[in-house]
Amino acid sequence: MKIADLPKEAKPREKAFCYGISELDDYELLAILIGSGVKGHSAIEIGKSLLETFITLPHLSIASINALETQRGLSRISALKLVAAFELHRRLSSPKNSTHQVITQTNQINERFRYLQTLDYEVIILVMLNRKKEIIRELTKYKGSFGSCSFDFKEIILDLLDSKCSSFVLVHNHPDGSDRPSENDVVSTAILRDKAEEFGIRLFDHVIIYKNGYYSFREHGHFREF
Q1: Which domains does the chain carry?
Q2: Is the pTM of this model over 0.70?
């Protein structure tokens, strides 16, 4: 059934205007983001189909654009809108918008980047701090599949120098749920720390985010071993 054929109170947009956005069901919110359907499939039907396919909103929220656009009736532009909406939610769910947050403890990094638990791919993020330990810049360096992220030491050093930071935190996630650093993580961190110190820049910590937790190199004594 076309949305135009529904009674006014059953149309997602009209329902939102009349009763408030919080009164809409999940599939109706998805329908608003999708905008319009295609021949034979309304936006509401596409929204319901997405929930049937991905089972839960958290599962849907980490789906890629390529995965979404394979769904019946969903265009690439509509898939992009959904991915953008979920990305905004992830950013709002962390204190990431506080650009001058002072970092003194590792658990603050975990809180700031908790959203990385929801990703199904690896990322590496540089968090640059000034002498007051305020965040002055965040930079997502790499995105990739399981185990595909690696450090380009020269490029990272150039980014650190460009930011004029005095220290930094390295953050990455383990989508496979591993709660320990790999051997490559340990070796690469040691090399990066030493290279940064040659320029007077201190590595404050390397934090690995995994589902329901985090691993801190500093808290586990790795820095003393280096």
Answers
A1: 3-92 (1.10.150), 95-225 (3.40.140.10)
A2: no
